[in-house]
Amino acid sequence: MKEFLKILLILILIVAxxxxxxxxxxxxxxxxxxxxxxxxxxxxxxxxECMRYISQDYSDEYDQTYQSIEEDAKKAFEKYDEINxxxxxxxxxxxxxxxxxxxxxxxSLSSKETGLIKGQEKxxxxxxxxxxxxxxxxxxxxxxxxxxx
Length: 149
Fold this sequence. Notes:
Blueprint: H1 2-44, H2 47-51, H3 66-79, E1 82-95, E2 98-111, E3 115-130, E4 133-140
Antiparallel strand pairs: 1-2, 2-3, 3-4
C-alpha cells in the first residue's frame, strides 16, 4: 500500500510539473510570436498592426501614452523609407499575467532625407495579459537611435 501511495505521489508530481512547464512554455511561445509579429509590422510600416500590441493603458517614465506612441509611429513611418530590426538577444520572464521581455536589438532606418541610420540598444518591454491577449504596458529605454559604425 505504501509503495502504491509513493508511486501515485510521484505520478501526481510529474503531471503537475508537466502542466506547469507547458503553461509557461506556451505563454513564452505566445510572447515570442507577438514580438516577431510586432517586428514584422514595424518593418512593413503597418501602424494598425503595431498598435494591436500596445495597451490602451500604456504609460512610461517618458510620459508616453498609447496616443503619443501612435503619433510618433505615424511620423516615423512617413519619414523613413525603410526600417529593419534584428533581434540579437531575447529573454522572457513570466509572472502570472505579467511578463518582462529583455531584448538586444539593432535597428536600421533609411530615407533620402537622413540617409542610413543604424543603432543598437537594450530594450525592456513590459507586458500584461488583457482579455486573454498580451499587450505592452511599458517600454524602457526608448532612445534606440544611437549611431553605430
